[in-house]
Amino acid sequence: MMFSTFAEQDYFRFPDTKTYTGCIINANMASHAPAGLAGFIVEKTAGVSYIIDPLTHAFQHEPSCITDSKNKVKKAIQDLATSYGEPIASTVGRRPLHPSHFKDKNIITDFTLNCINYQRDQLSSAVANNDSAKYLEDLELEKMKTPYALVAPYFYMTGSTFGEWVNVNLQLSQIAVQKKKENEKIFAEIIISQDVLRSEKRVETLLQLYAELNVDGYLLWIDEFCEHNSDREILESFYKLSSGLRASGQKEVINLHGGYFSILIAGNGGNGALSGVAHGPEFGEYRAVVPVGGGIPISRYYIPQLHNRVRYREAQRILKDMGYLENADVFHREVCSCATCQGVLSGNIAKFTEFGDATVKNITRGDGFVRREFPTTEAKEKCLQHYLRRKALEYSFAAHAPKDRLLGLILESYKNFSKTMSLEEISHLKIWYDILK
Ligand SMILES: [Zn+2]
């Protein structure tokens, strides 16, 4: 799971402490609060393995992405820039990085080493200094001090910039491999826009070039790649890219932002084309590389059969029309019988509305106000707990159930829900089925 905020760290123990095998921590978070993260690793999770994403792509976008309202570089990002050195230290907040900044062999070597050293050291001493660390065995402590893998610095590639960035990216990974110590793993991170996936030739080039790297694995992130709204061609291309990089299981490949399609291909549905799939505690089954401001929060109930979070009001209409809100027994049989749903309903189907409880607030719009509904903290928490329980089930189910059964169930849901849902809201199930069949 992606570490997002400290407020959400307890979800790593939900439904239980063994649910998550690993955690992705963004470097700005590691530089902002190392002691807090050490507490998270040692005390909150009993030593979840972690990877620090060096977030080097943050320095290639318009500086407004990393500055505050006064045009000052955010402190955590500035600290990162200082640790990484040139060419970032002198350009941060002033102008975006270009491939031409990486022409000098010494600069590119030092930069790579700085990024790698940052990951080696940033949380290591904070973990060792944590109060609870003294109760740990040496071996256990050593494991918690060291990231699961070190990520080579990397930059975002789009269809139009691929040719210019790809060689820089390859060099950064090659140097990282050269600087690797015994027992360390080096991962290359590939972050690309969807149009890179749209070109068969580009995917083949990418596969060929990255397969030659002597790295231990890859992290993947496709910009705003929502598996639920994607067409068959791009999903097939994504499958081809993941399974190609995976090289019949020789390399690890983790999708940083994936949904049930990724879970299926990581499991029996796609012959383990991914070794791991991450998502955020609440959002993050897809994500934009250049972040945009958040919208108004809306309660969403994860409908397990659709493998999708649906706005509460729509979820209620759909489930009612399907006859699943008849009574609690029908609901638990047809929709969800997880401990959260059992607890919320307590035998009374009328309580399903607790997933959608909201308060109305006036918010400014132009010269006046509009009334908007905001989900209550309790409602959000209930939706979230149900979501995480279902995700935990999905991961183990996709890893162990036979392929026929996995595919049969999504086809069945497609047919059932087409009675009451628009085609665009359910077509992902049919596309996933067609590709994996
Ligand atoms: Zn549930």
Brief overview:
With 437 residues, the chain is α/β, with parallel strands linked by helices.
Strands, helices and their partners?
Elements: E1 22-26, H1 27-32, H2 34-44, E2 49-53, H3 75-84, H4 105-121, H5 124-129, H6 138-145, E3 150-151, H7 162-178, E4 186-192, H8 194-198, H9 200-211, E5 217-222, H10 232-246, E6 252-255, H11 260-266, E7 276-277, E8 300-303, E9 308-311, H12 312-321, H13 328-334, H14 339-345, E10 358-365, E11 368-375, H15 377-400, H16 403-417, H17 423-436
Parallel strand pairs: 1-2, 3-4, 4-5, 5-6, 6-7
Antiparallel strand pairs: 8-9, 10-11
Bound molecules: zinc ion.
Zinc ion binds next to helix 14 and helix 15.
Characterization of the model:
The protein has helices at about 25-30, 35-45, 75-85, 105-120, 125-130, 140-145, 160-180, 195-200, 200-210, 230-245, 260-265, 310-320, 330-335, 340-345, 375-400, 405-415, 425-435; strands at about 20-25, 50-55, 150, 185-190, 215-220, 250-255, 275, 300-305, 310, 360-365, 370-375. It is of the alpha/beta class and about 425 residues long. The strands form four sheets. The chain has a five-stranded parallel β-sheet. The protein has a two-stranded parallel ribbon with strand order 1-2. The longest helix is centred in the C-terminal third of the chain and has 24 residues, at about 375-400. A hairpin with a 2-residue loop joins strand 10 (about 360-365) and strand 11 (about 370-375). The protein is globular, with a radius of gyration of 23 Å. The structure holds zinc ion (ZN). Zinc ion binds next to helix 14 and helix 15.
